[in-house]
Amino acid sequence: MKLWVSALLMAWFGVLSCVQAEFFTSIGHMTDLIYAEKELVQSLKEYILVEEAKLSKIKSWANKMEALTSKSAADAEGYLAHPVNAYKLVKRLNTDWPALEDLVLQDSAAGFIANLSVQRQFFPTDEDEIGAAKALMRLQDTYRLDPGTISRGELPGTKYQAMLSVDDCFGMGRSAYNEGDYYH
């Protein structure tokens, strides 16, 4: 069994060294990508929290205004007959609604987008994705693995279970097709 695992790993790294893409051939680069993706997920979660807080403020304001306008619209003339209500209406329309507009227009995505843009320059390219797909197909050929085995991630000697989604399989097929590999 150890010989089988060693042979599988040697073949995998041999396949990787034959392909000319950059990222997927280096475990060090791939490890960096894992941590970059983890950082992006954290940044995305922070962005979501900011957006949820913003939406919570907007919902609260909308509920408050709904209660107020349903009361005032029921008897508009009677409501406005009171000078304080007339003042508050003018104040809301002059001050509060523009403040809400400012809140709605706040762009809390800027931090996340900036982080994504910085990280994106280190992302793998289309060539890297094609190379990784080719490496899996060569592994399939070398060990005569059927597509179901590959898609279920049932590779001998691997520590973690990793399945290919339908989208992943389609992507591999597209890569093979675009490279003129009609066998896979």
Name the features.
2 domains; 0% strand; Serine Threonine Protein Phosphatase 5, Tetratricopeptide repeat; disordered N terminus; elongated; 184 residues
Profile the largest sheet.
none
**Tally of helical segments:** 8
Number of domains: 2
Q: What is the percentage of strand-forming residues?
A: under 5%
> Low-confidence segments, ≥5 residues, pLDDT <50?
1-13, 15-21
Large-scale geometry: elongated
N- and C-termini, Cα separation: 28 Å
Helix and strand string, N-terminal first?
HHHHHHHH
Helix content: over 70%
Any idea what the radius of gyration is? Answer: 29 Å
- The total beta strand count reads 0
**Integer average pLDDT:** 87
Estimated structural class: mainly alpha
How would you describe what is shown here?
The structure is a single chain. The chain has 184 residues and is mostly helical. The chain folds into two domains: 1-21 and 125-184, Alpha Horseshoe (Serine Threonine Protein Phosphatase 5, Tetratricopeptide repeat); 36-123. It has eight helices and no strands. Helix 1 runs antiparallel to helix 6, helix 2 runs antiparallel to helix 5 and helix 6 (126-142) packs across helix 8. It is elongated, with a radius of gyration of 29 Å.
